[in-house]
Design a protein that fits this description.
Length: 175
């Protein structure tokens, strides 16, 4: 099967497919109807870069030593005192590489559009560019299955405010 892995920065289950009525997400709702929709989720580190590190490896952040937020910068240089991250390579194959070895075309897109930007790669280790065949799946061979990471800006996108009427939003009681 083709694998479409959508990661939304600072997301929550506030999608129509999960019962949200004030925020409309028709494209994600269609994907949910045609694909697999998870009803339960668990995260071992609710921060973006450690979370990405665990998702792309299938290994707990603490096992990898990747539990500090952005301990590896996108330029390949760690913060002051974190020289370890300048050379830390994964001791295992990443999930995209495993799919690649199984014959899949792998991609990592910032927005899912053809010829779009490459998606986030600020994992807490030095990632291998060769794990991804491209920024989208349009260059795959005819009939070749794909594993595509699509990363969307979600909650960090301040433009999202224009899509919902704040007076219609129902915050959970714990807020």
């Amino acid at each position: 099967p083709n694998i479409l892995w959508v990661v939304v920065e600072d997301a929550s289950p506030h999608l129509s497919a999960y019962g949200e009525t004030a925020i409309k997400t028709p494209h994600l709702d269609q994907l949910a109807q045609q694909g697999i929709q998870f009803q339960n989720a668990f995260v071992t580190c609710p921060v973006c870069s450690p979370s990405r590190s665990a998702m792309v490896t299938g290994i707990y952040q603490t096992t990898l030593g990747a539990h500090q937020h952005r301990s590896q910068s996108s330029q390949g240089k760690g913060r002051a005192g974190e020289e370890f991250w300048d050379s830390y390579r994964l001791p295992v194959d990443s999930i995209p590489r495993l799919f690649q070895k199984a014959g899949y075309y792998t991609s990592n897109s910032k927005n899912g559009k053809p010829n779009g930007s490459f998606g986030k790669t600020d994992y807490n280790f030095i990632w291998e560019r060769s794990d991804y065949d491209g920024a989208d799946w349009s260059s795959r061979k005819a009939g070749q299955p794909f594993f595509a990471q699509v990363q969307l800006s979600g909650g960090k996108n301040r433009q999202a405010r224009r899509h919902a009427d704040p007076d219609q939003l129902q915050l959970p009681k714990y807020y």
